[in-house]
Design goal:
alpha+beta, about 350 residues, 4 helices, 4-stranded antiparallel beta sheet, about 40% strand, 6-stranded antiparallel beta barrel
Length: about 350
């Protein structure tokens, strides 16, 4: 009995040895069938969505403020005492119209004296030239007469400028915003004394600042929809795009020109604009498909015709809570919408088309 038990046990052990050795329970993977993506010899499946690039215009909504089209600080260019202020603060003034005059004092007399001396020097120089031709005057004497004449001319011109500078005029059509000096106030050329602030309110500017990722899509001359703080809707045009970013905010200044013939819109009020960027060819992709490369670059993963994973940096044109508009991609792509976290660039995958 004991001997038969040994025989049965030995027989069972033999069967198990043959079974395990045959690989029937744990079959080995044939050489060449192992895949680079898994340890189990199976390709990883990812969900994809075929996307075609389409023209897309982004309307960028920004808040800004109105500014004067031009702003000039009128300053003293000669010394003197303010005699008159010719317009009232807030008045519209035409180019060349008087704003402020200084007391003439002896400016007219100095001009007349300079003119008389200039006439004398001209006569002296003419006579010296005639005598020099006859060798009655030396070249040195002739040169001195010429120097005296040039100095007289300079003094006369200076006296003319000084007289003209006693009257400050409007540099262009605009508004005398405010005076910085009273009648009777003393001003000085060397102290750079401000006399008044002069602004142009037609056209008016609306200034906004655009992020660097949108800069390349800006286009000068584009029409812009504007809504003022009081709800007034008007249209403007992009008149200026800065070529240098602000070093602190990394944004670009953009100016939108609006017409304000009745000066009803003041400078300094809030306004919102819908800024049209250049039309670009872009793909609309789900926000969830955005991923990060090993180098820390945001982008999307796609599957090419050979079912190999590729990575493209995201040149984002527009974003919302549920989708992204991305430019700089091939016209037709298969975007990995589910499973991009588990595959790397260069992996071979099984793409499963996403149902709409």
């Amino acid at each position: 009995m004991k001997k038969s038990s040994y025989i049965i046990s030995a027989f069972i052990l033999l069967i198990l040895t043959v079974w395990f050795g045959s690989g029937f329970l744990f079959p080995s993977t044939p050489e060449g069938e192992k895949d680079q993506n898994t340890d189990y010899g199976k390709l990883f499946s990812v969900q994809v969505k075929t996307s075609e690039a389409v023209p897309h215009i982004l309307n960028l909504e920004l808040n800004g403020k109105t500014e004067a089209g031009r702003k000039v600080i009128i300053r003293a260019e000669t010394d003197g005492t303010v005699q008159n202020r010719h317009v009232t603060e807030g008045d519209f003034v035409k180019e060349g119209q008087k704003l402020i005059t200084l007391k003439l004092e002896d400016r007219k007399e100095k001009l007349q004296s300079a003119k008389a001396l200039l006439s004398q020097r001209e006569l002296e120089y003419t006579a010296a030239r005639k005598l020099a031709k006859k060798n009655y005057r030396s070249k040195t004497s002739l040169a001195k007469s010429l120097a005296d004449l040039e100095k007289a001319r300079a003094d006369y011109k200076k006296a003319q400028i000084d007289l003209n500078n006693s009257v400050m005029k409007a540099p262009f059509n605009g508004i005398l915003n405010k005076y910085d000096v009273e009648i009777g106030g003393i001003v000085s050329e060397f102290s750079n004394t401000p006399l008044a602030t002069f602004v142009e309110l037609d056209p008016l500017l609306i200034v906004v600042y655009v992020e660097e990722r949108h800069y390349k899509y800006l286009e000068k001359g584009k029409n812009v929809d504007v809504v003022l703080a009081d709800g007034t809707k008007i249209q403007g045009v992009i008149s200026y795009i800065s070529t240098v970013a602000d070093p602190n905010t990394h944004t670009f200044r953009v100016e939108i020109k609006i017409y304000n013939p009745g000066f009803e819109i003041p400078a300094g009020i809030s306004a919102s604009v819908k800024l049209p960027l250049k039309e670009s060819v872009a793909h609309k992709v789900p926000s969830s498909s955005l991923t990060l490369s090993d180098e820390g670059v945001y982008g999307i993963k796609t599957v090419n015709e050979a079912n190999i994973v590729e990575f493209y940096p995201a040149e984002m044109v527009e974003s919302s809570s549920d989708c992204l508009w991305i430019a700089g991609l091939p016209d037709s792509i298969r975007i990995i919408t589910v499973g991009h976290e588990f595959v790397k660039e260069g992996n071979t995958v099984v793409p499963v088309e996403m149902n709409e």
